[in-house]
Design a protein that fits this description.
The complex is a heterodimer.
Chain A (H helix, E strand, L loop, with lengths): L1 E12 L8 H13 L8 E10 L4 E2 L6 E12 L6 E10 L2 E6 L2 E6 L8 E3 L6 E3 L5 E2 L4 E11 L4 E6 L6 E2 L1
Chain B lengths: L15 H4 L15 E4 L20 H21 L7 H18 L13 H14 L4 H6 L8 H17 L1 H12 L14 H4 L7 E7 L4 H14 L12 E4 L7 E6 L2 H8 L5 E2 L5 E3 L4 H4 L13 E4 L8 E7 L5 E6 L18 H6 L1 H5 L9 H8 L3 E6 L2 E6 L2 E4 L2 E7 L3 E2 L7 H7 L12 H10 L11 E4 L8 E8 L2 E6 L8 E5 L3 E3 L6 E4 L9 E8 L2 E6 L5 E5 L3 E3 L8 E2 L2 E2 L3 E5 L2 E8 L4 E5 L4 E4 L6 E3 L6 E3 L5 E3 L3 E4 L6 E8 L2 E5 L9 E5 L3 E5 L15 H4 L4 H5 L16 E4 L8 E7 L3 E6 L5 E5 L3 E4 L17 H8 L3 H13 L3 H18 L3 H12 L4 H11 L1 H18 L1 H21 L2 H9 L3 H6 L2 H7 L1 H5 L4 H6 L1 H8 L10 H4 L4 H4 L1 H9 L1 H5 L1 H14 L7 H8 L4
The chains are: A mainly beta, B alpha+beta.
Amino acid sequence: MFFLKEETKVITLHPSYFGPNVREYLINRLNEEEEGRCTGDHFVICVMDMVDIGEGRVLPSNGQAEYTIKYRAIIWKPFRGETVDAIVTSVKPTGIFTLAGPLSVFIARKNIPSDIKWEPNTVPPQYTNHADQVFEKGTSLRLKILGVKPDVAAINAIGTIKEDYLGAL
Amino acid sequence: MSRNLLDQDFGSEEEDDDFNPAPAEDSDNDDVDRGEVGHHGRGEGYTENEGGGDDAGGEEEGEEDQEDEDDRGEDDEDGEDEDEDDEDAVSGRSRKRRRRGPGVHNFIEVEAGVDEDEDEGEDEEEELEFGGELHPDDADALPVGAEMDDRRHRQLDRQRELEASMDAEKQAQLLKERYGRNRAAASDAVIVPKRLLLPSVDDPSIWGVRCKAGKEREVVFAIQKRIEERPLGSRNPIKIISAFERGGAMSGYIYVEARRQADVMDALQDMSNVYPRTKMILVPVKEMPDLLRVQKSEELNPGGWVRIKRGKYQGDLAQIEEVETNGLAVTVRLVPRLDYGLNEDSGAPLADPKRKRTGANAAIARPPQRLFSEAEAKKKHSKYLSATSGLGGKLWSYLGENYAEGFLIKDMKVQHLITKNVKPRLEEVTMFARDSENGTSNLDLASLQETLKNSTAEESYLPGDPVEVFKGEQQGLIGRTSSTRGDIVTIVVTEGELAGQTIEAPVKTLRKRFREGDHVKVIGGSRYQDELGMVVQVRDDTVTLLSDMSMQEITVFSKDLRLSAETGVDGKLGMFDVHDLVQLDAATVACIVKVDRESLRVLDQNGSIRTILPTQVTNKITPRRDAVATDRNGAEIRHGDTVREVYGEQRNGLILHIHRSFLFLHNKAQAENAGIVVVRTTNVVTVSAKGGRPTGPDLSKMNPALMKNGAPGGMMGPPPSRNFGRDRLIGKTVMVRKGPFKGLVGIVKDTTDVQARVELHSKNKLVTIPKELLVVKDPVTGQTIDISRGRGGPRVPQGGSAAPPSGWQGGRTPMAAADSSRTPAWGGAISSRTPAWGGLGSRTPAWKADGSRTSNPYDGSRTAYGGAGSRTPAWNAGARTPYGGSGSGSSDFDAFAAGSRTPAWGGANAGGRTPAWSASSSTSNSKVYDAPTPGATYSAPTPGGYGGAPTPGLSAPTPGAWADSAPTPGAYNAPTPGGPPRRPYDAPTPAADFDGGSRPYDAPTPAMGGIAATPGAGPYDGDDGGPRYEEGTPSP
């Protein structure tokens, strides 16, 4: 699910950057560092705007300035039960690996309808029910997230296509 | 009376089911053999009748009896207060008790008969035996044959009840008077609160008396016999109230209930196997109910697991094949331990294998568990082997035992089996797994689960675990555990109508509840222990989870799972973790792909999978995050980068470890080997570097934009370029300029940065000589050759190292940097000089001499120099001129090249200098000084070099320098101009040289001179400068 989240970030600036472009530097930095970041809980999709850049505070001893920036960002936090569209990145005998945006979702064999069989002999290998459902690398599909496992800087999820209206698009 | 329990014929017990009411489902029980003999006070004299007294007729007695019965019923309940919830059982039992009490008599107190075992049999026996001893009064009251008929007993019972109920109050009064008891001995036992039925201090005490272990029952029967002999009312009555034993855990004791200890002593006097004189234990009142607690026997189901108590198969796991209807004998399936007569003494008679087996040694030296093999049996024991084909396949009969499908099929008595806490280990269980046709073993998970459930499972429930009641009245309740006590789990209901309430439920009726997607950890009970994964399927209480590590599906029982908050920490075995790099031997490293309980699976650098023990690991290689390797294209790859194989399967993955030329990659999409792949660095290309995203300037560092102009970094200048690869000096013919080998010619055999090993032509000897002392010669012509033309030659650093005052070098280098055209000049310096040298082979030493001459003590040498020295100044002159030219610009240089220098040379040659030198050859220092200073040297360069703007500035210092370095001999002038911009250096440099001796200075000096020339030669090599220069060189 997408959220608009207000967050703060602290950026330290070398004195050599002090000048008319400070703001620009900070914004660039923020965008570079934040957009696309995964906190282990959510993905930062896009930094919307700065709420407040604040005044820089010069740190004693090294002369660098510390800016605390408040900004708003669009984040995506995958939830259990959420239905998302994804693209197959690889198919294995154990299941299907997909990417839903930045999130990698694994669909275990148990979560694939039983009529969709593993066909290792086709090129490329695929899961198929020999009808409309064919899953190979690059296929778009719709899945439901079953569980989300947060990691340090990544999120892993498992999903299912064993329900109505799920499967290849 | 003592009988072998095992010999009883249980099948014939008519009362079997009567006596065994439907066992209380939820009593946690054990079967304990127990016999109890009741003795009842008879007659008025003995009124302390409790728990099973009976009477000998008469109305009053009847009433008493009634009360007794009630008491007994209460006792019953006392004994099983843990079964309180099970009303069926209780009521059933009390009913039965009532029925039995009077009939069978009075003498025999059969305690709460839940035992399914032998004792019932015994009781039966007793009944039969004592049946004849019916009291005459009772006998009168009963119809004929009543003693054998249960119904009659009941009738009598009812009769008495009726009587009792008529004047209950009166009776109660009476009884109260008589017994002085405070007990609610009302007619209706059911209403009596159970706690009031518990024994109190007013009740008779129970003493535990030592006896011979195993003879408990015998003793009890002996007591019974003695009571018969000496009944109450006789002269010497036995005054104990009851006696019983508790086998099992309490073997070695019998328990006697009596008012006084003396009564016990008296009753047990002179009885064999019992030792009343030893310490008698008075059972505390509180423990009395426990003493009489009845535990239900284990329910055995086919497919369940048991262990063998003793014999050859002691401790072995067995699977129940079949349970006989009486529940006393079972057929079990065992993995046989056979040696097929291989270890047998051929001479010994095969007669008594039984006796052999009984020894403790037999259990130790028993053969390993192996499935029966008829082939092996045939080898030595074919005569004992016979086959019968049954329905389910071939059945082998070998040495009196039956074998099917390799298993031993054996009938065993329940008491020879351990049925509780069997805890089958998976290794054992897998031996029983019959392979199905698809190769996967069809372990009967259900039966295994059944057995495991019987093991103490309460520890697997921790507060907070989500659970579900799946059995019993509260089926379907969902909640979280809040506490566990023994087998009872307290649950806070979280869903449904009862939400928020706290209920208690036995462990057996619970299962943990997981949802798909839960991140769980396997906590025990299976070989997947400590595996982490996400639940993909829940079916009843089996849960399928997807292992984080191997991406494989694992099916385990929900009780073995726990919600896991941790991430990443998968299996660990001691210090080893999955994905660790370990050293197996000096040449082999491997990455752990799986950690089992006792072994590790590793993928070694050659790509082979091995299973090793932790002890086989030499050491664990701590990961080096900063390790760097290069991929096939020479790009740098580091830990964390994503690379792809070029050939083969084109596998890709994240670099986990870099070890020498091997990379251990992790590929999440690969199921086998926990996603680990090993590749060679030369076979991969980088897909993406760690992080992947290009990052902007580091804002916490210096702004690179500011660094561009004149930043201090700029001052640093590029480090002197180094020569890589093979030193070009090697193999060259060189001449030594200085030192003991001066003038000798040889071939360079080997070099280091600063030194060269030279094989001298003359001495056929290898000597090590500083490189800067070598001059490369053409082996044929003997001409000096520049081997480093056009390159940042090795000389540059040499020059630097040779110049003792680093300030010199330092000063110069920036110059060079600032003036790009001059940097190469440095390199070229030699070349330009070299020819000069070449031309003036003889003079080179002179130069040196000149250097040495600078200091006074070398006057003599200077003199020698005189001749040769004439040119040195010239050199200087020449050097300086081009130097200036190159510094100011090419046009100057051109001009210079065109002629100004040549004349200078010429001039020098001609003699302008010579006089100077000759002057210098005169001993006076000052003269020397005079001579060079003049001008020839100075005037010439200054205009040339500083024709431009800097000239004034420079010219100003120059004199200054001059003044300072007044003592500096003329020869030193050369450098001074060389470093004009750094005036301060000028002065010290020579000074230093003076101090330190001229020799080191020497080297740079020419270099200096050379520099000047070099710029000319270097940059303009292409057009005219170089060649011309060379041309010029020889000419002098």
